[in-house]
Amino acid sequence: MADNSSSGTHPSEDQKKAIYEGLSDDQKKKQTYTEWVKDAYSNQYENWMPWIEDKYLAWFGTDNKASYATKDTLDKTKVTGISQVDKLQDGVNNMVGDQVGKDGLLAPVGNMASKEGINRAERGGKDEQGSYLGPASSTADPVIKNAKDAGEGLAGGAQSTGGAVTDGAKGAGSYVGGLFSGKKD
C-alpha cells in the first residue's frame, strides 16, 4: 500500500482537498467539503468497524457477535438479587451463549447470524462489498437505491407540504385571533 503521508496511509489535508476539487460540479453542489469529508469518514467507519469487532472477538475470546449479544441480553434478566441464584443464572447464560460461539454446537448458526445479521445491520443492510443482495446486486442494488431515493424524496416533499400547511394554519390562526381580540388592521 502506498504511503500517502509522512505518518502512515492516511491522506493529508491537502490530498483530501485535491480529491474534493476533482469532483464534478454537481457533486460539489450537493455537499460542502466538510460534508464530503464526514461522509467519507462515515463510509470507512461503516466498512471497517464490523471487521475490527469480529477480529477483536476472535483474537481475545470464544465469542462471536451473536454469542456476545446473547450473553449480554441474558445477563440483563437477573431477577432475584440472590448471589447463589445469580451465579447459577450466569452459568446458564454463558452456556447458552457459548452454544452459538466459536466452539459451540450452533457455531455455524452463530457465525451466520453475526456476519449476515448483526454486521449487515451495522452496515445499514449492506454486505462486506457494500451490496444489498450479493450475487444479485447488479440487478437489485440499483432498484434498492432508486427506491431509497424515492422514499427520501417523498419524505422531503411531505415535510415541505407539512410546513406549508402549518404555516397556513398559523396565518389563519393569527387572523382569527385578531378578529376576536378586537384588533383592526
Provide structural commentary.
- 71% of the residues lie in helices and 0% in strands.
- The protein has helices at residues 13-21, 25-30, 33-60, 65-75, 83-99, 107-122, 137-181.
- The longest helix has 45 residues, at 137-181.
- The protein is elongated.
Give keywords.
185 residues; mainly alpha; 71% helix; disordered N terminus
In short:
This protein is mainly alpha-helical and 185 residues long.
Number of strands: 0
Q: Please state the CA-atom Rg, rounded to the nearest Å.
A: 26 Å
Mean model confidence by pLDDT: 73
Structural class: mainly alpha
The quaternary structure here is: single chain
Beta-strand share of residues:
under 5%
Low-confidence stretches: 1-8, 171-177
Coarse morphology: elongated
How would a crystallographer describe the biggest sheet? none
Fold topology:
Elements: H1 13-21, H2 25-30, H3 33-60, H4 65-75, H5 83-99, H6 107-122, H7 137-181
Helix pairs in contact: 4-5
